[in-house]
Structure prediction request, 253 residues.
Amino acid sequence: MPVLAGAEPFTFDGGPVGILLIHGFTGTPQSLRPWGEHLAAQGYSISCPRLPGHGTVLADMNATRWPDWYAAAERALEELQGRCTEVFTAGLSMGGTLAIRLAERHGERVSGLVLVNPSLGTERKDLALLKILARVLPSWKGVSNDIKKPGAREVAYSRIPLKAAVSLQDLWATTHADIAKVDVPILTFRSTQDHVVEPLSGRLLLDGVRSTDVTEQLLHNSYHVATLDNDAEQIFTQSAAWIADHVGKRGVS
Prediction:
């Protein structure tokens, strides 16, 4: 199946410190490429896989489930660790959820997490109907391109594949159940105006992890896809500085 233009995975060979970037639900690596290019310019080795079912056609995504997306992220982590001395894991939206899940299962192999509007749950009662809707409808109106910056566009599906969305809820439940296992350093960015991920997710993250080194930065001029929005430069520069400050410190008291 042909891949949408711009949705291709990307890697950059750099120094011994690696950064795994993971895109969001219905999104593609395109949403993270500018961030990856900025980090690569700082000398880091970068990997950003295209998750299964993403960046082709909607039916492909409806045929995948969260273990497929997680397995792809895990393989990318293992590949990056094979050529780097340490790896930081970063993600946007569901990509942040998968990054958290990697830290839950492989905390000793993750030097730190950088998260942008990670999703961990919802307070919307209507989403309880997803399982019923998914039996009769393949998709629903989408949540892509939640971007404040004029002219900025995200390469993503315009509709939500409902069977995959049900699986996303399962990922939230699984990740939240184990979140107390996370003890790695965390830098998290949260848009104050996000029309996709609710404030609940930020609370679940900050209240749930065991990490003592946690920094939350607020983004006041961006919507959900903040890596392509007005505050992108803040994300790029602050994450690069944070990673540089944490290189070699994992496990050092």
Observations:
- The mean pLDDT is 95.
- Residues 127 and 166 are 9 Å apart (CA to CA).
- The two ends are 49 Å apart (CA to CA).
